[in-house]
Q: What sequence folds into this?
């Protein structure tokens, strides 16, 4: 498939590209027809590939532009200076793609003045991206000392070149024991640890939500145990943001749904995507 087709799929989405490819009105395209289903699968694969390639290129450019290093994967066995006893149940550092994060923030349309935390913040890319938005406070919680050092160096370099990031705080801590501050509204996790740690983290989140009622959002990539996140009193799933290989699920509490409803399904997300935050 040519690069022009890949670009078109990434920019216009499946439906428009399919209509153009078959030169028929959208109302006449029967997605249940086997040839159409096969075409949809091929286009979906091409679209995902185009999105992933574009994401990798943007991340390389981002690191080079600001003199930072966020892209290299760090195996969990190479993480040292660990706080707590959960190293064996944690996962390797794999960075969020910056373009994925841009899509999430654009789709959420969060109000200004909120507090943001990345639990399992690694080298700090998510924090740097968040600093481009009007968050009042941005916290990165990371249990590996070498990752915290790298993140601190990245934040310092980014601040020096952009004058942004003054609200970023780096915390060297065990996420399962870290108390969620009552001025934190948005909680981001790139699925950094196993189920029993997530259970403890969510216990801290639920405690904070009950102690200081406020609008709260949880964003997690490929949640594996949704029952640990949702409950009748606090968080319910409200939408998904799919981009490339990522599948982020957004959860909101009642106060957040009143403030900024996010009733998007997987098919609706691409239609509300705004331009990436620069």
A:
């Amino acid at each position: 498939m040519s690069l022009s087709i890949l670009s078109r799929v990434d920019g216009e989405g499946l439906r428009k590209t399919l209509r153009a490819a078959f030169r028929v009105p959208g109302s006449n395209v029967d997605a249940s027809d086997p040839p159409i289903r096969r075409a949809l699968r091929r286009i979906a694969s091409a679209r995902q590939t185009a999105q992933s390639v574009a994401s990798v290129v943007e991340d390389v450019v981002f690191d080079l532009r600001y003199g930072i290093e966020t892209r290299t994967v760090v195996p969990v066995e190479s993480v040292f200076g660990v706080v707590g006893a959960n190293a064996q149940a944690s996962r390797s550092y794999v960075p969020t793609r910056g373009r994925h994060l841009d899509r999430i923030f654009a789709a959420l349309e969060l109000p200004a003045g909120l507090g943001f935390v990345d639990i399992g913040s690694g080298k700090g890319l998510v924090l740097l991206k968040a600093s481009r938005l009007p968050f009042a406070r941005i916290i990165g919680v990371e249990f590996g000392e070498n990752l915290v050092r790298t993140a601190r160096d990245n934040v310092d370099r980014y601040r020096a070149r952009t004058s942004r990031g003054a609200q970023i705080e780096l915390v060297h801590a065990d996420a399962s024991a870290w108390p969620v501050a009552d001025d934190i509204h948005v909680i981001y996790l790139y699925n950094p640890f196993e189920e029993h740690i997530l259970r403890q983290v969510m216990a801290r989140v639920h405690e904070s939500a009950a102690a200081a009622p406020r609008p709260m959002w949880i964003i997690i990539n490929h949640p594996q145990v949704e029952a640990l996140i949702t409950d009748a009193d606090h968080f319910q799933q409200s939408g998904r943001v799919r981009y490339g290989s990522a599948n982020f699920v957004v959860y909101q509490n009642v106060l957040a749904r009143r403030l900024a409803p996010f009733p998007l399904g997987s098919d609706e997300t691409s239609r509300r995507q705004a331009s990436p935050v620069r």
In short: Residues 106 and 274 are 5 Å apart (CA to CA). Residues 34-66 form the longest helix (33 residues). Helices lie at 3-12, 14-22, 34-66, 98-108, 125-130, 145-162, 195-211, 254-259.
